[in-house]
Amino acid sequence: MNVMDDYSGSVIGKYKLIKKLGNGGFGAVYCAYDSILNTEKAIKLLQINDPTKANKIFQEASIPYKCKHKNIIEIYGGEVIPVNNALTHSKELLFVIDMELVHGLSVEKIMSKQFITLDFSIKIIHDILFGLEHSHNQGIIHRDIKPGNILIDNNIPKLSDFGLASTLGALIIPPTWYKTHRAPESIMTNTATIETDIYAIGITFYRMVNNISNWQEYISNHYTTETDLINDIISGNFIKKLEYQSYIPEKIKRIIKKACALNPKERYCSATEMRNAIAKLHTNYEWNKISDLQWQGINQDKKNKELIIAEKGKIFKFIVKNNNRKSTSECQDFIILEEAINYMNNYIKDSLLK
After folding, report:
1. What pLDDT, in 10s, does the model give residues 165-190?
2. Cα–Cα–Cα angle for 274, 277, 278, nearest 5°?
3. Distance CA 13, CA 80 (A)
4. How do strand 285-291 and strand 294-299 relate by DSSP bridges?
5. 308 touches 294 (CB < 8 A)
């Protein structure tokens, strides 16, 4: 049984698989009906080389207990379930994780559908660091932090797959680690630490504030071979080469740079330290990008701003509106469109944080 295939409609143990929700780095997640509890829930199917050993490790690690936190997807338990293999006409064992069912989308899917504001990114990463702090205090490393593993449930961000990658490690088929979120030292030593999680959340924060919805395409445009990518990660050049949108404030760049420092000792020493740094980012305006030529912003006093670039003849007019009234003193004229866009992006950058 290849867990990456879609088995919607099938029955595995007490679970009827209703709908496949997605593939993770080392398994597939379904919305499933629990025939014993008469309720819908999420389950993850893991193809593991020794499910019985995985079950023992899972229970001894006390994952369901240690990962109880409002910013972590709750894990109720894990069990080994025999399933029929249609090709070999034999039974094989799967390890099934019983989890909280979240009705929202992942940050990765949200980014594929709409622009996410810097204010949203800051709040999400800040709250996820609470969950990461809790997990690290329990001695559990995540090892797979990325936008696809951050789910939004009733405006509450929750980190999924917590503890599974590091706990079940080499048992997973195949052993996996998301390459572009992998800290340089982990490639050399294959170890997972607090510092490697900090690095991964730094890359996640970078992707969010820059609204990179198709990360694989972005990486393919910068690297022709996996060897070049790995070499750049190991040398620290990967993070140095990452480009930022021109409206990103320097304070945000500095946080990402520190989280992703080549030397683990130069990163934030804990999720708490990084969260405290994020907490100092007080937004002035929440800017939403409508298009390259139009942004809308709102501040805490519910005052609205609108930035527009309009072409009038051979002139590109940068127009600022405060509560729908044109602010003549802030308007500018440009002959070159790119200069007008750069000016608008700098305006956003300068007004975004207090």
Report:
1. 667 766 665 555 678 999 999 888 88
2. 90
3. 9
4. antiparallel
5. yes
Q: Are 283 and 352 in contact (CB under 8 A)?
A: yes
Output the pLDDT for position 85. 67
8 Å CB contact between 204 and 145: yes
pLDDT-based confidence at residue 163 (cuts at 50, 70, 90) = low
Counting every residue written for the chain, the total comes to 354
- Average of per-residue pLDDT across 184-199: 91
How far apart CA 249 and CA 221 sit, in angstroms, is: 25
**Average of pLDDT values for 240-261?**
96
Please identify which residue in the block is written with the tokens 């951050």.
150
Taking every pair of Cα atoms in the chain, the longest distance, rounded to a whole number of angstroms, is: 77
Query: 315-344 burial, b for 16+ CB within 10 Å, e for fewer?
Result: ebebbbbeeeeeeeeeeeebeeeeebbeeb
The answer to whether the pTM exceeds 0.85 is yes
**pLDDT score recorded for residue 67:** 83
Vertex 210 angle, CA 207 and 216, to 5°: 45
Helix (H, G, I), strand (E, B) or coil at 148: helix
Among the listed residues 176, 173, 121, the one whose alpha carbon sits nearest the alpha carbon of residue 147: 121
More confident residue, 172 or 313: 313
Angle at 55 between CA 270 and CA 59, to 5 degrees: 55
Give the SS3 label for residue 26.
coil
* 62 or 329, greater pLDDT: 329
H-run or E-run covering 318: strand 315-322
Report the distance separating Cα 20 and Cα 232, nearest Å. Answer: 35
DSSP 261-308: -SSGGGS-SSHHHHHHHHHT--BSEEEEEEETTEEEEEETT--EEEEE
Cβ atoms within 10 Å of 262's Cβ, excluding its own: 18
| Integer Cα distance of 145 and 148 in angstroms | 8
